[in-house]
Each structure stands twice: as C-alpha cells, then as structure tokens.
UniProtKB/TrEMBL annotation:
Its EC number is 2.4.99.17. The keyword RNA-binding does not apply. This is S-adenosylmethionine:tRNA ribosyltransferase-isomerase. Monomer. It comes from Bacteroides coprosuis DSM 18011. Its main location: cytoplasm. Pfam families: Queuosine_synth. It catalyses: 7-aminomethyl-7-carbaguanosine(34) in tRNA + S-adenosyl-L-methionine = epoxyqueuosine(34) in tRNA + adenine + L-methionine + 2 H(+). It is found in: Cytoplasm. Gene3D superfamilies: QueA-like (2.40.10.240). The keyword S-adenosyl-L-methionine applies. One of its GO terms (biological process) is tRNA queuosine(34) biosynthetic process. Keywords: Cytoplasm, Isomerase, Queuosine biosynthesis, S-adenosyl-L-methionine, Transferase. Belongs to the QueA family.
C-alpha cells in the first residue's frame, strides 16, 4: 500500500466543527463486508446489530487541557505550547511541542497566565518542534511532594484549553468542548486528543446496552498527536508512528476472551481500541493483560485477530486511522463508502458521523 492511495478530496465544509446536540444523534453508515451492502442509519440504531453477550470494547482514556499559550521572556512573543506527556513529576519535566519552534531555544523562559505566575524553562531540544520544559513551581513549603504535585497540575491545567484538532482550529474553543471532547466514561488521564468513536455513546445508549445484555470492556490507550502527524513517505512500510501508552487489564481480558470462547460478536469502538487489542493478542487469538507502550501501525493488508466489528468516525485523507479502517473493511469497499459518505452529506472528523463495519 502506498500513501497516495489514501488521497481523496475532502471539502472543508464536510468537517464537523461542532458536535450534534445529543451524543447519539449523529449518523451511522453500516458496512456489511461479506455482502457489500451499505445502510444509512442513526447512531442510536447501532444496538440493532448486536445481541445478548456480545461485547463492546471502549477506550476510557481521559483528555487533559493540553494546549496553552505563553510569552517568551524579553521579546514577549506569543508561543503555543502543546503538552504531550509528563516526563518527571518531581522535577516538573514535560515533553511538549512549541509553535513557532524557531523562536525557542535551550535556556529560554516562557511565562504563562495573565499574571505570568507560571514559568517554564526550556532545557532540551528533542525534535524540530519538540522541547523539554522544566516548570519552575515551588508551591507551599508546608505541602508534601504529592500535594505540591497535585496543586501544580491543577494550576497548569487551569491555564490550558481543550486541545481541539487542527482541522477545527478555525473556531474558538467553546464551553461545550470541555464536556463533548471527552467520552462519558473517560477516567484515566493521559490523552491529548479524544478517541472519536467513543464520543457517540450517551448514558441513555449505555443503559439500553445494559438492558439488551451487551457486555462492556474498557481498555486504555492514551491517544497522542502521533496519530495526526503527516506521513512523509510513499511506502507505508517505512512509516514509524509515535509510541502511546496502553493498559489492558484483567477485567477486559476476561470479558473479551469469554466472548471469543462462546463465539459472540466483539466490537472495537474506535481505531485506538483496535490498535490496543491487536498489540496484546496471543498467537491463538486471545487477549492478554499488558501495561506498556505500542507503536503498532495497521494498514492493508492486515489480518485481525480479536474483533469482528469496528466502529470508527470518518477520517481525513492520508490519516493512519483511515488506513486501519481500510485494512479492516477492505480497501476498495471503504474508499467507495467514503465517497458515498461525501455524496450523502456525512460529517467528517472528531465531531463527525460514524461507520460500523460488520465482518461476518
């Protein structure tokens, strides 16, 4: 597979800039891989395709307010800082992206907040855009280190904003984004972008799942910006994705493997879930416990081992998410479905509509 095979013309107006009024009000395109049939439904109809003891696997990662703006010492130049991950809690070290990168060098200080009370020093250049910052925070002398760290993160996050994707940056971050750019079951903090397929599930829909007997399994993959980096090689086998932290714990393993044994359907809710479970699968197709990192890059052709259903949003051209969806649904079928989606007015991106692929 070549990068150019995932090019398609996506007009900007097709990208959803706002969520639907209710989470499960989005549209749902259903692809039947075996027959080639395409159906057009509402997302709340998704349960019609599942029965008692089937399993949905969700990603319970929680997005933190990763984008903040500071001013460079002396010049006062406005600098965007995108927090990626905390490297060392005791020393307040963070891996970040800065923009514009050309203005920031080792030793520079950045000031945040209206009173510039939060200060960070650049101590390392890691990539052309990446930096390591040390935040200079003393806190209260009476506090123990754990309390001091908690207060520091509270103050840091208060300066940040919801990290909407670049394709949505044409608009200002709004109060609704704090809630809607987060799934209702977000629990484990660490993501800098939302696993979009999980956003469609409302409390009402989850309750209907429970009544119908559909099982819920939760894994964690802290979605990072690596999913959205531009691919700069035509040969996809030469592309390397950034590592992301994953946690697949015993409760999820037990639920999924029981469904495998009883031949019930297993549905991966989103590409992050699919990457996590394909990272931790055994040679006999069962899920195993794992806590660590993954840089798994899935593109056609690929043989999947755990889930036989996939829910995913409509993604952007050249994206790694589109490549995974094409691997699961079949390249020709999925790319044709994307054209149908544009013709039928489906909404693309994180706040867009969804696709259910049934592989049975």
């Amino acid at each position: 597979m070549k990068l150019s095979q995932f090019k398609f013309n996506l007009p900007k107006e097709k990208i959803a800039l706002h969520p639907t009024k209710f989470r499960d009000d989005s549209r749902l395109m259903v692809l039947h891989k075996k027959t080639g049939e395409i159906e057009h439904k509402a997302f709340k109809d998704i349960l019609d395709y599942f029965d008692d003891k089937d399993v949905f696997i969700f990603n319970n990662t929680k997005v933190f307010p990763a984008r903040l703006y500071g001013n460079k010492e002396k010049t006062g130049a406005r600098i965007e800082v995108f927090l990626l991950r905390e490297l060392n809690a005791e020393q307040r070290l963070w891996d970040v992206l800065v923009d514009p990168a050309r203005k920031i060098r080792i030793g520079n200080k950045l000031y945040f907040g209206e009173d510039e009370s939060m200060v960070a020093e650049v101590i390392d250049n890691t990539t052309s855009r990446g930096r390591t910052l040390r935040f200079l925070y003393d806190g209260d002398e009476s506090d123990d280190e754990e309390t001091k760290h908690r207060k520091f993160k509270e103050e840091l996050y208060a300066l940040g904003e919801t990290p909407l994707p670049r394709e949505m940056i044409d608009r200002e971050v709004e109060p609704e984004d704090e809630e809607r750019f987060q799934s209702i079951f977000a629990e484990v903090e660490g993501a800098v972008t939302a696993p979009s397929a999980n956003l469609h599930f409302s409390r009402e829909l989850m309750k209907r799942m429970e009544i119908k007997g559909i099982e819920k399994a939760f894994i964690t993959l802290h979605a990072g910006l690596g999913n959205f980096r531009e691919i700069d090689v035509e040969d996809l086998t030469k592309h390397k994705v950034d590592s992301e932290q994953i946690i697949v714990a015993e409760p999820a393993v037990d639920i999924v493997n029981q469904a495998k044994e009883t031949r019930n359907n297993i549905c991966a809710i989103g590409t992050t879930v699919m990457r996590a479970i394909e990272t931790t699968v055994t040679t006999d197709g069962l899920l195993k416990e794992y806590e660590g990192w993954t840089n798994k890059f899935i593109f056609p052709p690929y043989e999947f081992h755990v889930a036989n259903h996939l829910v995913s949003n409509f993604h952007l051209p050249y994206s790694t998410q589109l490549m995974l969806v094409a691997a699961f649904g079949g390249y020709d079928f999925v790319m044709n479905a994307y054209q149908v989606a544009m013709d039928e007015g489906y909404r693309f991106g994180t706040y867009g509509d969804a696709m259910l692929i049934i592989d049975k």
